[in-house]
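Entry, Tuesday afternoon. Goal for today is a structural model of the target with adenosine-5'-triphosphate bound, before we commit to ordering more compound. Inputs were pasted exactly as handed over by J.K., no edits. I checked the ligand SMILES twice against the vendor sheet because last time a stereocentre got dropped in transcription.
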Amino acid sequence: MDSSLVPLDKLTKEPYSSILGYPKATRNELSKRVTELKKIGINGISFTGTTTLNNIPVLGKGYVGVVVLSNQGKKTVALKIRRIDSSRSEMGNEAKLLRLANEVDVGPKLLDYSKNFIIMEYLEGKKIIDWIRDLKGKGSVAKLRATIRKVLEDCYNLDKIRLDHGELSHIHKHVIVGNKICIIDFESASVNRRTSNVTSATQSIFIGSGIANFVKKIIKEPNRKKLISSLRKYKNDQSRENFEDVLQVLGL
Ligand SMILES: Nc1ncnc2c1ncn2[C@@H]1O[C@H](COP(=O)(O)OP(=O)(O)OP(=O)(O)O)[C@@H](O)[C@H]1O
Ligand SMILES: [Mg+2]
């Protein structure tokens, strides 16, 4: 991984300006963003990662943001940059929801935020779908079970504080597995909805089409009827006891 740090003054120039203001930003917007970065203590960006944007490597890209490896002082951090064409007008709401998740030790640690940026803990690892796809050899079954169990425990903790992540039915791109196993991206989360973290994640992992197809090849499929009935019970009463019943049906 090439991780030479590009300092702030170079970020307003080509080719990096197309990342700081993706897909395209005015000079004025770019210079405002640099001022904002200075304020939150960012001293540069390291263009590295497995995703490329205009031939520039980054950690990841979504519809709201582009995530890059960055330095806040001496600390290595992940920086989520609001896309110019994002449907969200600022990052404060996402940051507050992430902070709430952090209260139950879920999500990358929020370090700071501003209108256009979120600074958070850098998670080394792969998206869960890629991790499962590459999983092989002795111990795969135990590793997969432990990983799913950790994800579902996090979901249970989010349910408990009534924070609904909102996108766990598409879990494949919302969990990073590496040194840590971590649910990411709280941009669509809400405290004003009925929480369905455990049920959405379970369905996505065991019943859906994406990840479930890989999971099936490694661990025995749970009894569908029993699973649906235990999920229904949990949905009506999100108690620890009902959650443990779900885990039991899943063989976790
Ligand atoms: N803390 C982090 N550490 C390392 N990589 C990260 C981190 N947060 C996000 N990423 C990477 O960046 C990608 C995009 O991040 P995120 O999902 O938060 O953006 P988004 O714009 O909200 O995406 P989407 O449109 O899918 O909702 C992730 O899929 C992941 O690969
Ligand atoms: Mg998102």
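The mean pLDDT is 96.
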